[in-house]
Design goal:
The complex is a heterodimer.
Chain A lengths: L2 H7 L4 E6 L4 E9 L5 E9 L6 E9 L4 E6 L1 H19 L1 H6 L2 H24 L8
Helix pairs in contact in A: 2-4
Chain B lengths: L18 E6 L4 E9 L5 E12 L2 E12 L4 E6 L11 E3 L1 H18 L1 H4 L8
Parallel strand pairs in B: 4-6
Antiparallel strand pairs in B: 1-2, 1-5, 2-3, 3-4
Classes of the chains: A alpha+beta, B alpha+beta.
Amino acid sequence: MLPLSLLKTAQRHAVLVELKNGETYNGYLQQCDTWMNLHLSEVICTSKDGQRFFKMPEVYIRGNTIKYISVPEERSGQQVAVGAAAGAAGRSAAAARQLAGQQEEAAVGGARAGEVRLDCIGIAVGSDWQAD
Amino acid sequence: MLQEVPLPGTALAEELDQRLLIVLRDGRKLLGVLRSFDQFANLVVEGAVERIIVGEQYGDIPLGLQVIRGENVVLLGRVDEGKDAPEGLTQVSPAAIKEALRGEKELNKLKGTLRARMDFLDLE
């Protein structure tokens, strides 16, 4: 799964965003777009030195200020692995050569399973998402 | 041998599902499995761990699943699965390594000018 797609599936989950200036923002991801601009809610901002904390109801972060985004692993882990198998098979000839024949078939099947799981995520969001 | 050199656009594809060491512009070293990337070299890294090395000690801080914005990456490369622990270094807990890092930063503040000349890097 592409990085920005993974971000889209993380909507309404808690994320940690670190900016280039070292500040970290913990909050629920409401929206993201193709430029990685983020809209977060219920945000706690931690200063670079880790000493000062600010709580904000809403925050808009411009994509080009982001260093990285941490995403909860529980749900996305499965989708990421499936997406990687499909991506590896489809993306480069070199990677495809290395993959055994049966792995490619599994990846194609996996891609379909991945799509199904994305639909499930859409339904499951909004209810409790404790790890299974 | 020459025809094995990958093109810049597809070079990252060969690193998929590999355990990598990624160095960021702020000097951080992350280890993790590369799961996907895009045309900007934004990366998805699973099981990411930040390795902090202070003197003879190192500590791993678990970070989970990460989306790294491509422009912050300096370089990345594969690490041997078997040889994960660096030789000659002892592993300590995350809390201990953070203390050691704080101590080193204080020391560097005293050293002053030499680090100030390195300000073309994005180090803290």
